[in-house]
Amino acid sequence: MTSLAGIPVLWQTIGLLTLSNVFMTFAWYSHLKHLNDRPWWIAALISWGIALFEYLLQVPANRIGHQELSLAQLKILQEVITLAVFIPFVVFYMNQPLKLDYLWAALCILGAVYFVFRT
């Protein structure tokens, strides 16, 4: 099924969920780098403001995706995207080392993808 300018539903969902995850990741973790010297409630309010944009993208993404995907498929797709966004964020933005554990996590999620998307 396609709609928005002929873009397939799955790709619309992936695109919106990816953008949503960028906002989510910054809302949840960027305060550790930039606001760690401020009271927690200031970080929480700023994070909440950033998270608003996450929800403005995530809600339509799930509504669009649910046209063709089950709830379990939407959730596993979300987790794949979360890891794909989180690893570059951790390495490049937060300056944390790249760990082999991320590969193992990705392989576990790949297993989840297999089981949820098999027909």
Q: Helix coverage percent of residues?
A: over 70%
Rough outline: globular
Q: Which runs of at least 5 residues are low in confidence (pLDDT < 50)?
A: none
Strand content: under 5%
Order of helices and strands: HHHHH
Number of helices: 5
How many strand segments? 0
What features would you highlight for this structure?
mainly alpha; about 120 residues; 5 helices; globular
Structure description:
With 119 residues, the protein is mainly α. It has helices at residues 9-29, 31-34, 40-65, 71-93, 100-117. α4 runs antiparallel to α5 (100-117). It is globular and about 50 Å long. The mean pLDDT is 94.
Short description:
This protein has helices at residues 9-29, 31-34, 40-65, 71-93, 100-117. The chain has 119 residues and is mainly alpha-helical.
List the helices and strands and how they pair.
Elements: H1 9-29, H2 31-34, H3 40-65, H4 71-93, H5 100-117
Helix pairs in contact: 1-3, 1-4, 4-5
